[in-house]
Design a protein that fits this description.
Helix content is 7%, strand content 10%. By secondary structure, the protein is mostly loops. It has a domain of 122 residues: Alpha-Beta Horseshoe (Leucine-rich repeat, LRR (right-handed beta-alpha superhelix)), CATH 3.80.10.10.
């Protein structure tokens, strides 16, 4: 998921999410297994970086109830079982080391690692441990630029006051309910909160250098408080409870918007996003493709698993390269040809699971090729060239 690959990634992505986001997408949180899921030209399947089981669900699931909200100060239960000591884990590491990785080592107490020894430390990865609170020596602040605390037991964001050189911070798969005490980290470019308990987007004011924000698989109901993130290029919001796309007008640099597995009934609020290149909006309740008149740079659109019956609203997208529309209700090859044949840059389409495929399986691929001779990939299979 490099950090730009779906980690969902809903994704999300974070196996680019998710980003599956995403699995997420950027920053691959989980190793992808070989399968036949639809993928784009880069091998990403457009989902959050979560397991397929976590992302499963249909449109009828729009009324799924959340876990009851509790106050930030409520106790999280008894502490996890801890190893007697973590002191010796880094005994063989030289003090001039600039990267430390302690993954799945049952580390519970960051203080016992005696990290102050490493005066040149730039990257610290403590994934999949039992850390409940962030305890970092302030002596590391001048050099430390990346902290990865993915999959721990952190409930509250504390301990980052001195770390103003941070460029990347991953707090995914923890127990965080509120985003606090981070908006002084002005150099942050990548910030990950996949699979926490966040219900409100807050505490990010002034992070104008932020390029990637991942909030997939939380409890977010409204897109808000992003106005000052004017440098944002990737926004991952898959698997939340969002009913409307809004609050994005100032994000003129946004290139990727992933908002799959939410509660959307229409595509709105994208008028100011002239630089948008990818829109991942699968697994919602859309009945049509519309609202994209201003997004003429779109290259990738994923509207899979929406009850869309007609292929419309794409005529202005001259640079479209990939259209993912599996498991919709599309039934007309004439519409496919009318809407897409003139798109010279179009290379990949996914239509499996639609009536136009299920009603005539033997002829399906040939009909797509006749309608769209420029295509090089149909669903998960490349088109044979003569």
């Amino acid at each position: 998921m490099s950090n730009s690959e779906p980690k969902d990634q809903a994704g999300i992505s974070h196996d680019p999410a998710a980003t599956d986001t995403t699995d997420t997408p950027s920053h691959a949180h989980d190793n992808e297994k070989k399968d036949d899921r639809p993928r784009d030209s880069k091998g990403w399947d457009g989902k959050l970086r979560l397991s397929k089981k976590d992302l499963s669900g249909d449109i009828a699931g729009l009324n799924i109830e959340s876990d009851p909200e509790v106050s930030e100060d409520e106790l999280e239960g008894p502490p996890p079982e801890q190893l007697p000591a973590d002191e010796d884990l880094l005994d063989d590491v030289g003090e001039d080391e600039d990267e430390i990785d302690l993954v799945h080592m049952r580390v519970a107490d960051m203080g016992s690692l005696r990290l102050e020894r490493f005066g040149k430390l730039q990257r610290l990865c403590l994934r999949q441990n039992q850390i409940t609170s962030v305890e970092l020596p302030e002596s590391l602040a001048p050099t430390l630029t990346e902290i990865d605390l993915y999959d721990n037991l952190i409930s509250h964001i504390k301990g980052f006051d001195a770390f103003t050189e941070l460029v990347s911070l991953d707090l995914s798969f923890n127990k965080i309910k509120h985003i606090k005490r981070l908006n002084h980290l002005m150099k942050l470019k990548d910030l990950y909160f996949v699979q926490n308990k966040i219900s409100t987007i807050e505490g990010l004011d002034g992070l104008s250098n932020l390029r990637q924000l991942e909030l997939g698989a939380n409890r977010v109901r409204s897109i808000e408080n992003l106005e000052t993130l004017t440098g944002l290029e990737e926004l991952w919001l898959g698997k939340n409870k969002i009913t409307e796309i809004k609050g994005l007008d100032t994000l003129s640099n946004l290139k990727i918007l992933s908002i799959q597995s939410n509660r959307l009934t229409a595509i709105t609020g994208l008028e100011k996003l002239a630089n948008l290149e990818e829109l991942h909006i699968s697994h919602n309740a859309l009945t049509e493709i519309s609202g994209l008149d201003s997004n003429r740079k779109l290259r990738v659109i994923d509207v899979s698993a929406n009850p869309i019956e007609h292929l419309t609203g794409l005529s202005q997208l001259k640079h479209l390269e990939e259209l993912w529309a599996s498991n919709c209700k599309l039934g007309s090859f004439a519409e496919v040809e009318k809407e897409l044949r003139d798109k010279e840059e179009l290379q990949t389409v996914y239509f499996e699971g639609n009536p136009l495929q299920t009603n005539q399986r033997a002829l399906y691929r040939n009909k797509v090729k006749l309608a769209l001779p420029q295509i090089v990939q149909i669903d998960a299979t490349f088109v044979k060239t003569v």
